[in-house]
Amino acid sequence: MAPSTCFDGDKLIYLVGGTDSVGEQVPQVSSFNIETQQVTHIDNMRLGGLYGEYLFIYDNTLHFFQEYPGEVILTYNLSTKVQSQFALSSPFASILYDQKHTIFMVGKDNQFMSMSLATRQYKLLMWPSVPLAHDGNGLSFANNLVWWYSPKENKEELILLQGRGNNHRYSIDRNEWTKINDDDPVDNRVSFGFTFIYDMPQRLVN
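Request: output the structure for the sequence above.
Response:
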């Protein structure tokens, strides 16, 4: 299993968890410098099982979303090296970070909510009244939320990509979903991964 990763907006990619070549768990926190191409071991995580996909950085703290054995957020402060954890309110299928202080979560029970990383307060949001995409085994694990921002329009939206006829755009300001009239060549994107590209990078860590 590959480690979870995130970019600090400058020159470091952080890596947490994963497994080694023989399948043993690696509880390490490391960084990869894209300029020097060097990997640096920072610390070892002492909490949780470190099985997850999502890693974000907020307030100089790594937030690792663990899926097994319990769905919790593990945090690691890069300055103080203090570690902590707190439980999520419900199982999640897809998570997205807005690069500021809010995460958006699609729950496995077809709930859609946001959570402030600053206050850890939840807010239940509108769901587009469509079933969550599933794989052949009935599992709804997906990484199909994409954050979209237009500097020209000063507008940000979320895009849910589940496959042909099941793709939607979400307005954060209006709490409203709109179906995309797409020509998606893929029927079901439950096992696809997505990301976004910065055309105006910003530094997230001092």
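The two ends are 31 Å apart (CA to CA).
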